[in-house]
Amino acid sequence: MSMSLTTTIGLIAGVCTTSSILPQVIKILKTRQTSDISLLMYVFLTLGILLWIVYGFMINEMPIIFANGASFILTISVLVLKVKHG
Amino acid sequence: MSMSLTTTIGLIAGVCTTSSILPQVIKILKTRQTSDISLLMYVFLTLGILLWIVYGFMINEMPIIFANGASFILTISVLVLKVKHG
Q1: Which of A20, A21, A37, B12 could covalently link to B45 via disulfide, CB atoms 3.0 to 4.6 Å apart?
Q2: What percent of chain B is modeled with pLDDT above 90?
């Protein structure tokens, strides 16, 4: 199976943007502190990512679905931890 | 000019994800403090967004180009301010 250049660039883009959310998740898991986290920012980000997944399915572009699927798991985790820890 | 449902969903997704970067930019412009900002996170995020723009042009999807174009201006601003203020 060979992958097109377009798909490859999309997947590398996804690894970069999804990775950038990871440090925040790790920090919260370590410190259990979420008071400095903006709830509104993560509500917007999670909603946006969810809409990107819908859009990815509509135009049938796998890198968009995969990248935003992974990002969604991370941002919804931050949201759950924020609601839990306040 | 009428816009397809797909394009509309993509643009709303873009408004949500791009908006989520704004509070950080405003905070830095107010405080001029960037020491708590992760340089590596913003390098990854900016590189990823740049690749999404390339990908958007390759599959010719306007919402991806617009959303990531706007996000790029914001994340590169954070990077410049981080390098300037340390």
Answers
A1: A20
A2: 73
